Amino acid sequence: MCGIVGIVGQSPAVPRMMESLKRLEYRGYDSAGVATLSKGSLERRRAPGKLDALAGLLANSPLEGNSGIGHTRWATHGEPTEANAHPHMTDKVAIVHNGIIENFKELKDELTASGAEFEGETDTEVVAKLLTRELETGAEPRAAFQTLLSRLQGAFALCVLVAGKENLMFGAREGSPLVVGLGDGENYLGSDAMALAGLSNRLIYLEEGDWVELTRDSVQVFDRANTPVERATSISQVATTMIDKGNHRHFMQKEIYEQPTVVAQTLGRYLDPNAGTIRLPDMPFDLKDVPKITLVACGTSFYAAQVARYWIEKIARVPVEVDIASEFRYRDPVYVDGGLAIFISQSGETMDTLAALRHAKDAGQHIASIVNVLGSTMARESDLVLPIHAGPEVGVASTKAFTCSLSVLASFAVQLAADKGEIDAATVANYVSELEHAPALMAKILSDDEKIESIARDIATARDILFVGRGIYFPIAMEGALKLKEISYIHAEGYAAGELKHGPIALIDENVPVIGIAPDGGLSEKTVSNLQEIMARKGKVVLLSDNKGSIADDMYAHFEMPPAGDLISPILYALPIQLLSYYAAVEKGTDVDMPRNLAKSVTVE
Ligand code: F6R
Q: Which ligand 1 atom is at minimum distance from the Cα of 298?
């Protein structure tokens, strides 16, 4: 989603802002721009497309100035054109903005009635014009900014430069994150710690409703009531070096192949193999008293939640409710006293998940978050944080964050079961040992990637592909379909295998590949029967299993998985579906790391 950087500095701002925008590329964007203040005047450059286009523009027509603001835009109001790209500017102010101003139409009508003209369709241009009108009444910049904030409704993070004031910058946070970076004789603003990684590791996370006035040597934070407030400074753990792809062609590929390492690291934080126990952080509530668990997330994180439901219900016998964050709070959920609500989010900033978290918090639930970004808003607003320790995930399609979230959730389910008295110490130790073996099995699967690459090449021409599984492999099937559609643009759906005959089987013909996820044991025979029904209708079955069993001769292809225990199997089966999607996308020549229309961190509703 959109990214922000702002510098009130002592040396040229543009090269440093461009480096920050580069770090923000992973969030997904479709245009970019920068503005600086030089000799009192504001100037900007903006370009649709990737940062290279903006860099080319700046090479031909450089911008001077030590104070500046920069932005990567993921289009919401209006197409990704130059006119809609940020910064939005008048002769008095330049503004970059993340989020959505909900009352922009009414503000625009008001400004138009008083003679304002607009070049684009964005809500941000309205903000720039509104602030300009305040300044034109003779208001001081701070008072004008306060008036501006009092007029805006919606979710936003703003960063503002004022003409003639090189040593001044304003920022505001309402619903979209904004972070202050503290420098020596300089200060910064960024949409996340990553934006500021090359500039400062001393960060102040603004709280909802906060606004801030920065100069080179001062930072003053105010709350929604315009009262000066102190906010804690924290030290960022984000690496300052640019993350690179190493020997890989894409970040997604790198992130798929580093899973054995990162999952081992994650499990290293949650398991004590010598003692055969799970280590969870201290909790402000007792797990044994939790009567119900609510799991809420979006997209891939939602599928992790669905997998966790099977674990928690089966092993710990605690009732679990799972929902998509964008639906959860609007359906007036019924909470149980003392219930635990767990929010899963790689970024920790997804707007829908954050809103659901706040809903559950207001209802008095215990709040836990499973996040990859430790300083994220969700982490800061939770009673308990279970970090996934996946390291920065740059590819827009989530891979290692999924398997690391699953690793944390599996560890959590085992500990919950132990605390509830559902399993004894010996069973916990068995589960710990099973989890410990997951990284080695993951490495084995990845070493067999040529087979899956060739299957992916074969199926990349299909128009529709189905993924089917039963039980805990049903969410893995849905994750497979999501991964494939988002990066290869092939239409794909994930179904519970037993559900096919209630409708979707009508889609099957010789052109429709069906990926069947059916590890030996459990419900595999039932899934295999469903795959047989598909083959009887000429569907091309690709079986992912450690047992090709009776259908071997009729299958289109089989990818052999290593045998594994029930707890870790869903984690392992995530790998072939990621590889399948990745290689299908490569075959189709799509922009694997930044698929069209998608953003890494979705901070709008
Ligand atoms: C798909 C993907 C998305 C995210 C979703 C939630 O590959 O990455 O579906 O899982 O946007 O994001 P987080 O986990 O950051 O809340």
A: 6
Whole-structure pTM over 0.85, yes or no? no
Q: How many CA atoms lie within 13 A of 280 on its CB side?
A: 24
Best mutation site among 26, 74, 251, 300 for ligand 1 pocket (most ligand atoms within 8 Å of CB): 300
Q: Is 600 designated active site? A: yes
Residue 57 CA neighbour count, 13 Å, CB half: 20
Q: How far apart are CA 55 and CA 207, in angstroms?
A: 33
Q: How far apart are CA 388 and CA 400, in angstroms?
A: 10
Please give the angle made by the CA atoms of 222, 227 and 231, to the nearest 5 degrees: 45
Indicate the DSSP class of residue 175.
B
Nearest CA to ligand 1 atom 13: 345
Interval 501-534: pLDDT, tens: 899 999 999 999 999 999 998 888 889 889 989 9
Q: Is 2 a catalytic residue?
A: yes
Does the beta carbon of 398 sit less than 6 angstroms from any atom of ligand 1?
A: yes
271-272 vs 277-278, strand pairing mode: antiparallel
Rounded to whole angstroms, the Cα distance separating 506 from 303 reads 25
Q: How far is the CA of 218 from the centre of ligand 1 (A)?
A: 37
**Which has the closest alpha carbon to 595: 26, 16, 14?**
26
350 touches ligand 1 (CB under 6 Å): yes
Chain mean position to CA 235: 22
Number of other residues whose CB lies within 10 A of the CB of residue 328: 26
pLDDT digits 0-9 by tens, 288-325: 999 999 999 999 999 999 999 999 999 999 999 999 99
CB 32 within 8 A of CB 70: yes
Alpha helices in 271-375 (DSSP H): 299-311, 325-328, 351-362
Q: Is 547's C-beta closer than 6 angstroms to any atom of ligand 1?
A: no
- Tokens describing residue 91: 């002769």
Percent of the chain with pLDDT over 70: 99
